[in-house]
Write a structure and sequence with these properties.
Layout: H1 3-19, H2 27-32, E1 44-49, H3 53-66, E2 70-73, E3 91-95, E4 102-106, E5 111-114, H4 120-130, E6 134-135, H5 147-152, E7 166-172, E8 178-180, E9 214-221, E10 223-224, E11 228-236, H6 242-254, E12 263-266, H7 267-284, H8 291-301, E13 306-314, H9 316-330, E14 336-339, H10 341-354, H11 357-373, E15 405-410, E16 413-415, H12 418-435, E17 440-445, E18 450-460, H13 464-483, H14 496-499, H15 505-517, H16 534-537
Parallel strand pairs: 1-3, 2-3
Antiparallel strand pairs: 4-5, 5-9, 6-10, 7-8, 7-9, 11-13, 11-14, 12-13, 12-17, 15-18, 16-18, 17-18
Helix pairs in contact: 1-3, 6-12, 7-8, 7-11, 10-11, 12-13
Domain FAD-binding PCMH-type: 40-225
GO biological process, one term: lactate catabolic process
Organism: Teredinibacter turnerae (strain ATCC 39867 / T7901)
């Protein structure tokens, strides 16, 4: 037995003795963590589940004793970027999905404090039960994805950026001590869950996209429910118009006519998202449609090379005025449709009465879009992972489950201007011609000046050559984007070394912080290129 194997065996023995055997997964269950829809591959030493703070401390102490890296995950649904896999081989995965308590909700100011394992669906159901005038902004990922997990990657929700809603973090450091950011440790503070900064330096940001500690709770602001709430779906007839649309969206955001994330998707993104939902809706209404019929229905009902989806919400008088401006602006590029929960309900009833089943099926398919805008999570978008390969998949809600379908993402950032969009189109179109692929692309407005391009590519996970070719394409694409100044806003686990520049003064400062807070390099070694010297220099 090799030394490393001996360390792992001794760690597992002591972890089972200290925590209980049920908290250390058997080998077969642990190996399931190595399945990954993005085709990444790592060897995991062990998987340990923690339900509370004392258990995390024990695991940290044992990893330090046996010189093993510890990689915390919440729900582990970082799909397309590496899922639950560590950056380095041989690490212990710390599964925090069992820490799933909603600790506090302020019913007046609309803030929520929760643990890492709390899911979007859990928050949605809790707020419904409490009948509060707030909702949590959700992502289009999955009902069972972790709120904190997405937050720590600076994820984008449907209407806002998650990080913009962050008030406070509670973090366990490598020595087992706990720090609360902002006013979290101030005695008798009445604003610790309301104001993010506290006195002196604000340390909250250093725990995002880093490995300085293990986040054990977070406080976020919820969104207030509004009197009027419309979702718009604007068709964009031709790709060449997208650059001008982006200029117009920038002006609408700067003028505060729009105050949301606008999602601008290409034809392929729309097709792989909606076609499987049409297929499922058809079954619900007793209709059998072929793949071609599903895709044809999507293309006939939502015409145009691209489409833009966003939200206008607020006082009904303001919403009415803003709708007119958005309609006039985006209507120049194609048809603009408006959805509310009531309009959708009435339209569905009308279609049932007059027997227009195919129109009814399409309305059923787009219903999750309205749900996202109102804070209702859905897992339906996950069907896009299997749709390029098959019509149905039994375990579709877990894309990591062994199947043919693979999916990988990259996410460069662009200035929100027509010249940047035109250059981006040139890059992606050249790659499509060179490699004979077609990217699914969504351009998300991150603020009033910047856009996140979400680019995905499907591949056959069972073909090793195809997996490697797809990774190469995406790496080359990200490198080309970076060369033009379009740097990534988040990275998959293979890209840290390539894109995290360890030779800048900022990087050297980050490394010094890592060395101070985690001198043995125990926590998530290599994450976003951060290490602490001796421990990270060894192979895990």
């Amino acid at each position: 037995m090799e030394v490393a194997d001996t360390r792992v065996a001794d760690f597992i023995t002591e972890a089972r003795n200290a925590l209980g055997a049920e908290f250390v997964l058997e080998k077969a269950l642990a190996q399931a963590f190595e399945q990954c829809v993005s085709g990444h591959s790592r060897r995991i030493a062990a998987v340990v589940q923690a339900r509370d703070i004392p258990q995390i401390r024990i695991v940290l102490q044992l990893c330090k004793k046996f010189e093993l890296g510890l990689y915390p995950v919440s729900q582990g649904k970082n799909w397309g970027m590496g899922s639950r896999l560590p950056v380095q081989n041989g690490c212990v995965v710390l599964d925090l999905s069992g820490m799933s308590k909603i600790a506090h909700i302020d019913p007046v100011f609309g803030t929520i404090t929760l643990e890492p394992g709390v899911t979007q669906q859990q928050v949605y159901e809790h707020l419904l039960q409490e009948n509060l005038p707030f909702y949590m902004d959700v992502t289009g990922s999955s009902r069972e994805s972790s709120v904190i997990g997405n937050l720590l990657e600076r994820g984008v929700a449907y209407n806002t950026l998650r990080v913009d809603q962050l008030v406070q973090l509670e973090v366990m450091l490598a020595d087992g001590s706990i720090v609360k950011t902002g006013f979290g440790e101030a005695p008798n503070s009445l604003v610790s869950h309301l104001y993010p900064h506290g006195l002196g330096p604000n340390l909250t940001g250093i725990f995002l996209q880093s490995n300085f500690g293990i986040v054990i709770s977070a406080t976020l602001t919820l969104l207030p429910k509004q009197e009027s709430h419309f979702v718009f779906i604007a068709n964009i007839r031709e790709t060449r118009m997208v650059a001008n649309v982006i200029d117009d969206l920038r002006l609408l955001l700067q003028q505060k006519i729009l105050d949301c994330v606008v999602h601008v998707g290409n034809h392929k993104r729309r097709e792989i998202t909606l076609a499987p939902l049409v297929f499922e809706a058809a079954k619900k209404y007793g209709v059998t449609l072929t793949r071609g019929e599903c895709e044809g229905l999507v293309n006939r009902t939502s015409r145009g090379d691209w489409s833009a989806v966003g939200v206008i919400a607020g006082n009904r008088h303001c919403v009415k005025a803003h709708k007119k401006i958005v309609q006039k602006t985006l209507g120049a590029y194609g048809k603009v449709g408006w959805l509310t929960a009531e309009k959708l309900r009435i339209a569905k009833n009308a279609m049932r009465l007059i027997g227009l089943k195919r129109q009814l099926i399409f309305l059923e398919a787009v219903t999750p879009l309205l749900g996202y805008a109102l804070g209702k999570p859905s897992s339906e978008a996950l069907r896009s992972a299997y749709w390029p390969f098959c019509n149905e998949q039994a375990n579709w809600q877990n894309p990591d489950f062994p199947s043919d379908g693979g999916l990988i993402f990259c996410t460069p950032l662009l200035p929100m201007c027509s010249s940047a969009i035109e250059k981006f189109h040139q890059i992606t179109q050249e790659f499509e011609r060179t490699y004979l692929v077609k990217f699914a692309i969504t351009l998300n407005t991150m603020n009033r000046s910047c856009i996140e391009a979400v680019i995905s590519l499907e591949f056959d996970r069972q073909n090793a050559d195809t997996v490697q070719r797809t990774k190469t394409i995406m790496t080359n694409l990200l490198e080309q984007c970076a060369a033009e100044g379009f740097l990534p806003y988040r990275l998959d686990i293979d890209s840290y070394r390539k894109f995290c520049n360890n030779h800048t003064e900022l990087s050297r400062t980050s490394q010094r912080i890592k060395q101070l807070l985690d001198p043995d390099g125990i926590i998530a070694p290599g994450r976003y290129g951060l290490s602490a010297g001796p421990r990270d220099a060894r192979a895990c």
